[in-house]
Structure formats: C-alpha cells, structure tokens
Amino acid sequence: MTAMVMDPSHLQPLKRISPSRFTALRNCALKEIWAANRVPGLLPASPAAKLGIVCHKLFEIATNRPLQTEDELLTAWNEICSEVENGMRANPLESHLVPLAKHAGNYGVKQRMAFSFARSISQNSKPAAAPSRAGSKTEQWFESVDGKVGGQIDIIHSTGQGVEISDYKSGAIVEKEGGSEQPKEEYQVQLRLYAGLYYSVKNEWPAKLNVIGLDQRHYDVPFDSQECKQLLEDAASLRDEINSRIKRRDPPDSFANPSAKTCFYCAYRPACKSYWDAREDTDDWPVDISGAVIQKKVLGNGLIRVVIESKGKHLAVRGLSPERHLVLNEDRKNLMLCNLAHDTAKDYFIQTALTAGYKTE
Fold first, then answer.
1. 215 three-state secondary structure
2. Maximum CA pair distance of the chain?
3. pTM (whole model) above 0.85
C-alpha cells in the first residue's frame, strides 16, 4: 500500500524547540517537524481541541484587561469563537464541525468554568484560589542563551517563598490509566524545562511548579535543578541532531517513530509511510483503511457505501457524505479513509465526525 506523498522539501530546520512540544518531538520527530514548518494537517482537529484553544485565548485576554462581568466575558468569548470558527469554515476538513456549541462536548460546562477561571486571572492576574500571592507576571517569553529552546510561560507568581511557575490546561491533566494524581509526563517535562529556562535568564530557581486545570485545581510538579538543566541540554542537543539530519537530506520516513499511542492523534498519518507500514488492525491503533475500491454505491439517503479490498479482506464503509468527501465523486481505483468507527459487524465501518478520505496511488 502506498501512502499519500508529502513534498520532502517541507522538512526545514527547526528554529528552536518549545517546552510544550519537546516530549512529542522525542516521540516522533517527523510529526513535529511538519508542524513546526506549518504544514497543514491532513485530518481535522477535534472540536474539543478547538474549544481548548478558545479557553486558552480567553485566559490570555484576561491577563491583559479586566474581564469580570458576564457581558465582558461573553463578548470576549464570542469574538474568540468567531475567529476560531472562521478558520474552521475555511478548512474543508473542519467546516462541518461548526458551530462549536453544537459539536464540542460539554460546551456549556467548559464555558462556565472558563469564565470563572478568567475572572480569577483577571483579578490581579492570579487565580482566586491563592489570594495571598504578592504579584504575578503573565505570558512571559523565556529563551535559552543559545536561542535553541524557548517558550512562553503562562503565569509567574511572586510569593513569600519564591517564584511559582504555572501553566494552564483546558483538557485532561492526569493520566486516565493507573489512578495517578500527578500531571501527564509531557506536562511535567514542559514545566521542568520552563524552570530551566527561568534559571538560565534569572539565575534563580523557582520554588514551585504546577499545572492548573479549568476547575482551578493546582497539580504540583516535582523537580530538581540537575534534572531541569539536563532536560534543557537534551532539548538543545535534539534540535541540533535533527537539524543536522535535515540538512543532510535524510529521508522523511527516517524521522518517524510510529506506535499506536504516538500516531493515534497525529494529523499527518495519511502521508506517513512509516505509519502505514507499522499499523496493526487492533483496537489500540487508529481505525484507518486503505486499498482498492471494488464497489461504490449511493444509498437511498444520499450517503455513499464503498467496499475496499485491503490485505486480502473486503472492508465495507457506509454513511460517507459526498459533500464532505469530494474524492468519492471521482472515479478512483484506490482510496484511503481515516478516523472511521467500527460498525455492527466485523470488517464493517462507518463514518465519524472526524473521518477524512484521500486518493492513493
């Protein structure tokens, strides 16, 4: 099977590494290189992710101007939503997911939580849960001396015990499995890198690191100075190693590191040969199929059903929208469909809100 081909000229050297993306870069360099090079994703982002962007932008506004009344909060929210949804409307992959109020789960609940959090940020730029803090700086940029690692810290609290660095997260903060109360590993690495950057600029270590959720709960991140310094060195070294390989024109596939977990939410997997070579037909991998079209039929409800031959099996997919998947209106021998769901029987599938289709060679 041949995956979509993406122009290898899109592999351009990385200017710097962001603490928020370092763990993802270590997991799969190819995905992060394409993202850093602003290569458009080939799969739609989930409405939940878009709602997270709205929440974070609201928090940014709250750090710069008062947002206290319901009218102030609603006006700012609607302006941000309009901007995000206009971008979605302009993207054929995401236009059907507008409005977010309809398609993002728990929209009203998250909006109310975001409003409450924004109010607390707006009050002296600090969460209401910690009224004793002496002062805060928000959205501060920190960069290593060599410029190889840099990022924007959401909030820096000055306290009687020292500086406290916090990062806002609108989604799940702890791992779903294992019952842990500690933040996800990538969030811990991100905060430790912020601590290293803060020290490299201020020559002072923060006293505390934490992640703050929409419910305004604080999740502390343990750290020590040596670990933070080492992470900063590791990030700079990884950047140099990747850029050397890019300049050497190593093939894009050599930067990939496919696994069920790494690839599950990757928007570039339709174009990733390494993914298609590695993926297995098990529940932990994305529900994607690719192969030769042996049947295509328009059903009575106007939706399309196709049968694709792949790995010696006949796989049937129903409920495909011809408006969303223009590739189905063409006479194509080979087809790729990603982000499907299992139907009621084995080897039968159905379209989801995030399904996307592409022709293959």
1. coil
2. 70
3. yes
d(C-alpha 199, C-alpha 193), whole Å: 10
Q: Does residue 274 contact residue 254 with C-beta atoms inside 8 Å?
A: no
CA-CA-CA-CA torsion for 284, 191, 183, 20, nearest 10 degrees? -30
* Axis-axis angle for helices 107-122, 47-64 (nearest 10): 20
CATH code of the domain made up of 287-359: 2.40.50.140
User: What backbone phi and psi angles, to 5 degrees, belong to 275?
Assistant: -65, -50
For residue 25, count CB atoms less than 10 angstroms from its CB and return exposed for 0-12, middle for 13-18, buried for 19 or more. buried
Give the whole-angstrom CA distance, residue 349 versus residue 346: 8
Rounded distance between C-alpha atoms, residue 48 and residue 170, angstroms: 9
Q: Write the CATH number of the domain with boundaries 135-223.
A: 3.90.320.10
Tens of pLDDT along 207-246?
999 999 999 999 999 999 999 999 999 999 999 999 999 9
Q: What is the pLDDT of residue 332?
A: 75
How far apart CA 108 and CA 51 sit, in angstroms, is 11
Query: Measuring CA to CA, how many Å separate 93 from each of 44, 272, 354?
Result: 5, 18, 8
Q: Taking the alpha carbons of 49, 51, 54, 56 in that order, is the dihedral positive or negative? A: negative
Q: What is the pLDDT of residues 26-81, one digit of tens each?
A: 999 999 999 999 999 999 999 999 999 999 999 999 988 888 899 999 999 999 99
